[in-house]
Amino acid sequence: MAIFKWQNVLCLQLLVVLFAQAVAVPEYRRLPPLQEQASIQDAWTAERLSNVPQLLRKYGVDAWLMSQKEYAEDTVFWSLKSATQFSARRRTVDLFLANAVEGTSFSYTWIDNTPTVWSELLVVLEAQNVSSIAVNADTDVAFSSGLHAGELNKIIKELGPKWKKKLVVEPMLGVEFIGTMVFNRLGWYRQLQETTWAIISEAFSESVIEPGITTTSDIEWWMREKIQQLNYTTWFMPDITILNAEDPFGNLSSTARRVIQFGDLLHCDFGVTAMGLNTDTQHMAYVLYPGETQEDIPEGYLGGLKQVNRLQDIVKSNMKIGTSGNDILKTSLKQMRSEGFEGRIYCHPIGDWGHSAGTLIGMANLQDEVPVLGDLPLLDNTYYSVELYAEYFVPERNETMNFYLEEDVYWDDEKKDWEWVWGRQEHFHLINPPVNDLFRTQTDL
Ligand SMILES: *[C@@H]1O[C@H](CO)[C@@H](O)[C@H](O)[C@H]1NC(C)=O
Ligand SMILES: *[C@@H]1O[C@H](CO)[C@@H](O)[C@H](O)[C@H]1NC(C)=O
Ligand SMILES: *[C@@H]1O[C@H](CO)[C@@H](O)[C@H](O)[C@H]1NC(C)=O
Ligand SMILES: *[C@@H]1O[C@H](CO)[C@@H](O)[C@H](O)[C@H]1NC(C)=O
């Protein structure tokens, strides 16, 4: 009976929240059976591979050569491979051509452990009269420096001086190949993002958090288990923080409070991985005191959330295609300061990797410029994590606090603009007074 009443209370609260916030409730999205996942992923890969000749022509190279051995793969291998390949085998050599002779293939793969791989490669290079061969031997960009040092020596030795002279490094090849997200991936990316939100929404609720008892690490491990139950994985350990609990965020000493209390402002940094895609999201939650409703959230907190939403808008509007990450950073920080507030910006590409290929718009410790990676141009048809914080003075606490958010965006090629993949946080997740307290109130009545 009491439970029945309690459910009514919860439903009513849910309705109030829904009407007040008018946001869609994220649902857990089930993944298709593994065989179906593999065919979906292979179709994406085929589409990406078909774009390679065009990519080579864009950067003015004639051929792209990757060579690797089992367990010593080139970074690009992971974006080239089929869904049923789990590593390179023997020596795996991939060659792509910008302008294949008519009637011949633009793409060659050898999986071999005999010298035949080199003699056959030389036959193709000669027949195609290749004038430049890009190799992933960059010194600074991870996605273009996956050619192992020993493997480069092997290539030079086997191809000989004539072809050695034609080797070139073009960092944007790896960056653009890995960074570009074919349109058909978006449907599933959105479902991954929705699942990310659904896990955060449940984690930041009274069904997981009991103030006075639950610790931040309880929530982190609850999230890990939830990911596992859904048959997803992740690319980093979920991170839950109590903002400004004795120790400011970002300066987590072992003495930082871990047990969640009423009135806490909580923060999560959380992402999932599935079907070769990754998400990265930061949200905040407020723990209501017993008897409180969302009307009781301190004004200062609401103001802080608005402020960081504003910073998201500023950065998103400055993400002009072709502009460098460093320019976007400078313009955005300048605009933020002209609007009279402070904060930090550290956005990164996302997709095949959690921190994926493309220009960086600041890093948490680099707010003037990011060397090399910040100088790359912003590419269209990519996904980005808009990651940042805004400072805001909270009168109720008599202190300036940092308000942290992170949401993923994708490039909408029709609108020619960035769009939130699933949405962005504009309302705090709320941890309602614990079930036990409501229960007590019900039976007392
Ligand atoms: C091979 O390419 C070079 C330019 O890179 C050109 O001068 C030469 O004529 C080409 N040879 C053949 C056989 O196509
Ligand atoms: C996870 O995988 C198992 C085994 O295939 C399956 O029984 C279960 O229904 C899956 N769970 C979800 C939430 O998709
Ligand atoms: C970080 O913590 C240390 C030790 O608790 C403290 O001395 C220091 O002032 C803190 N730094 C910041 C930026 O709050
Ligand atoms: C607010 O904090 C400042 C210093 O940070 C202090 O000088 C002031 O007395 C505080 N005000 C109240 C009302 O506690």
TrEMBL record:
The keyword Ligase does not apply. The keyword Mitochondrion does not apply. It comes from the Eukaryota. Keywords: Signal. SUPFAM superfamilies: Creatinase/aminopeptidase. Pfam families: Peptidase_M24. Residues 197-387 form the Peptidase M24 domain. InterPro entries: Creatinase/aminopeptidase-like, Pept_M24. Residues 1-24 form the signal peptide. This is Peptidase M24 domain-containing protein. It comes from Lachnellula suecica.
